[in-house]
Amino acid sequence: MGKFLAESRRHGQILKDICTEFGVNAEQETGGQKIARSLAETLVKMMQMALGSGAKGQAEIVAAEAVTSAELKDHMNRELIGEIAKKMDGNDAAVLKKAYDEVEDQKDRHFYHSRGWAREPWAASLGIPAVIPPPEDKMYMRSAAGAAVAQASRKLMLKRRKRRDLSVRSRCGRAAPLRRAVFILAPLHHPLKSLRYYRRSTAAFW
User: Is this structure's pTM higher than 0.70?
Assistant: First the structure.
């Protein structure tokens, strides 16, 4: 998360640099800034309320959803910058394109990463099989196609887990009769010897 925070701060500085290059005062209060600030404060308030409720799991979900909402807005802003750059010429186009290229991959990963962390805790809270940490936590997604690969990876992980669980239950079922026989027939006056024999006898089943 420290890396994502550093990248997000860098993205903010890039936007300020664009404003400076275009002769715009980035510190000037505008209607758009007020709306964006109000939205950010609302997201923070949501997280504080959820944390104050004492339900840690729900607070984590609310926090993940709040971050995903913010990342989605950043994702859309980045796409708009790219589209504007295509319609401009000369130095102005170069400035926007440079900014777009620097943050493109990072913004995609931020959004898909936060979405994965919002999805899996929700699934777990509803009793649905979940993958925690989500595949997006390990994969570097640069596009919607990359996110689709992560989704496919999630399905594969769940299938492997299901097969593993079935295999474990099957082994437990085969070992159960042997366990009962060992405890019934083992000499009661040698408990330590019986325990060692039990471990050796059941080792092949695990």
Answer: no
